[in-house]
Write a structure and sequence with these properties.
- The protein has an eight-stranded antiparallel β-sheet.
- It folds into three domains: 213 residues, P-loop containing nucleotide triphosphate hydrolases (Rossmann fold); 100 residues, Elongation Factor Tu (Ef-tu), domain 3 (Beta Barrel), CATH 2.40.30.10; 125 residues, Peptide chain release factor 3, domain III (Alpha-Beta Plaits), CATH 3.30.70.
- It is built from 15 helices and 31 strands.
- Helix content is 28%, strand content 29%.
- The two termini are 40 Å apart.
- With 526 residues, it is an alpha+beta fold.
- About 7% of the residues have low confidence.
- It binds guanosine-5',3'-tetraphosphate.
- Guanosine-5',3'-tetraphosphate (G4P) binds next to helix 2.
Length: 526
């Protein structure tokens, strides 16, 4: 075996957080291109999104698209000597709690922002989840080949809306058709954009004064002098480069570029693999610290992808390896039950094929074929000493549905199914206060559809679902709560543990409530 510490140190496990259409797929594809995993741009897209509507529809017919949706969940590529693991965080209609949970399995996040739009809602929400973990966030301001918002405004908005300090690593020299290149203070060079796709970027080192030595036409351009002035001003007046703050998620390095034309992308990834952390020590439930280089294997389940085909009951449990080395066929213990299991059928994820995995180490993700033994949040470990990771957080649901069994005779399987699916983390369950009606909560529409499908196929229970739409769920201290606080605009329900929760119609209703009951504190999950 290779030196474990050395192998762990070259792991970079991250997710891309962005609003749909900001360019996540395009930039992922560029990374695959640079790493040699694919040869042609367009491959990722042709496979999924564009040709046959990525995600939901595919996922529902998992048998045919297994290769697509599962491989695109995790991709492992070699980049510049680093083993890079990219975890997908689906947007659009397949957004779900799994998207958030995936962020619990990464060591860093890349935030792709459309420079024409600035910080959009989904980016903000995903950022909040990542930020809670205190992991580093690397920002890529995309679509520089188009006219967008002023770079200074983009950076100011980022700091203001997300509440994080920013450090521009490079600065655009123009935008859209005027885009000349990047004034790159981090690398102390100017990166000139090639004129055609065959014409690569040109790099010219800066001199001590921060100018380009020699005679070049572009030096006369106002776009160049402006970028140089802006960047220098920012560095005098703005935040200092501070690797520790970057790694704590308090300072985000900001890069500019265009994923579509590939401009600035390599510069971005080069800095990313340099600055992003390798897998590090984690605190366990009992307070012990676990080193990724510990000899014995351990990991946790952060996502379970159920097979939607009723003929195949197997599921894939995604495991983030936290320590040691996985070897095919090894025996591990499942912390929750204390039982031993053999990890025989596993899979690792490559850019364009799924391969049976033989070995994998801390930082990597493996998929285990599972027949229902594993649950989200489960810890598995090798050796005698039990390892229990901290529980995964629960997320505040945003969408709600009333649910009832269609056939009263099937009440029993309905209840059993709901109970198990809720326990599995597929969906959240609430009940109205007095009438005990069932209300399902989710962060994405797909969760409801999967729930309905699985209830029917796995539990033979057909259900009626009535959408209640978006609501703001806020927990309240039972002591402070009085039943008359509830109204048509803030429905009172209880969660699975019996804790009271208000479902507010909108933020207007929430604010109205806060004004009326200033002493009542409202809480939310992550
Ligand atoms: P997503 O995964 O974040 O949802 O975004 P994706 O990469 O699919 O990109 C969304 C659209 O934005 C795509 O256009 C893509 O080509 C475009 N795009 C991505 N990066 C850049 C960039 O750097 N510059 C420009 N100009 N466009 C970029 P599309 O699928 O063809 O949609 P449409 O724009 O034709 O509607």
């Amino acid at each position: 075996m290779k030196d474990l510490a050395q192998e762990v140190n070259r792991r970079r496990t991250f997710a891309i957080i962005s609003h749909p259409d900001a360019g996540k797929t395009t930039i992922t594809e560029q990374l695959l291109l640079f790493s040699g995993a694919i040869r042609e741009a367009g491959t990722v897209k042709a496979k999924g999104k564009k040709s046959n509507k990525f995600a939901k529809s595919d996922w529902m017919e998992i048998e045919q698209q297994r290769g697509i949706s599962v491989t695109s969940s995790v991709m492992q590529v070699d980049y510049d000597g680093y083993q890079v693991n990219i975890l997908d965080t689906p947007g659009h209609e397949d957004f779900s709690e799994d998207t958030y949970r995936t962020l619990m399995a990464v060591d860093a996040a890349v935030m792709v922002v459309d420079s024409g739009k600035g910080i959009e809602p989904q980016t903000k929400r995903l950022f909040e989840v990542v930020s809670h973990r205190g992991i580093p966030v690397f920002t890529f301001m995309n679509k520089l080949d188009r006219d967008g918002l002023e770079p200074l405004d983009l950076v100011a908005e980022l700091e203001e809306v997300l509440g994080i300090d920013a450090y521009p690593m490079n600065w655009p020299m123009g935008m859209g058709r005027e885009l000349l290149g990047l004034y790159d203070l981090y690398n102390q060079r100017v990166e000139l954009r090639g004129k055609t796709s065959e014409d690569p970027e040109t790099y010219i080192d800066l001199d001590e004064s921060g100018d380009v030595p020699g005679d070049y036409d572009f030096k006369q351009s106002s776009v160049y002098t402006q970028a140089m002035e802006d960047a220098q001003l920012l560095h005098e007046a703005g935040n200092d480069f501070d690797l520790e703050r970057i790694q704590q998620g308090k300072l985000t390095p900001v890069f500019f570029g265009s994923a579509l034309t590939g401009f600035g992308v390599q510069t971005f990834f080069d800095a990313f693999v340099d600055l992003a952390p390798a897998p590090s020590t984690v605190e366990l439930e009992d307070g012990r610290m676990l080193e990724p280089t510990a000899e014995e294997f351990s990991g946790f389940v952060f996502k379970i992808q159920a097979n939607m085909n009723p003929a195949h009951r197997d599921r894939i449990a995604f495991i983030r390896i936290s320590s040691g080395e996985f070897e095919k066929g090894m025996n591990v213990s499942l912390e929750r039950t204390g039982k031993t299991m053999r990890l025989a059928h596993t899979t690792q994820f490559m850019a364009d094929a799924r391969e049976e995995v033989e070995t994998a180490i801390a930082g990597d993700i493996i998929g285990l074929y599972d027949t229902g033994n594993l649950q989200i949040g489960d810890s598995i470990y090798e050796g005698r000493e039990a390892i229990k990771f901290k529980p995964l957080p629960q997320f505040t649901p945003e969408l709600f549905m009333k649910v009832t069994p269609k056939n009263v005779m099937k009440q029993k399987s309905f209840h059993k199914g709901i109970e198990q699916l809720v326990q599995e983390g597929a969906i959240q369950l609430y009940k109205t206060y007095h009438t005990e009606e069932y209300i399902l909560g989710a962060v994405g529409q797909l969760q409801f559809e999967v729930f309905q499908h699985r209830l029917l196929h796995e539990y033979k229970a057909e259900v009626e679902m009535i959408p209640m739409g978006n609501k703001i769920a806020r927990w309240v201290d039972p002591e402070a709560m009085e039943p008359n606080m509830s109204s048509s605009r803030n429905l009172l329900v209880k969660d699975i543990e019996g804790q009271p929760v208000f479902l507010f119609e909108n933020s207007f209703a929430e604010n109205w409530f806060k004004d009326k009951h200033p002493d009542v504190e409202l809480y939310q999950l992550l």
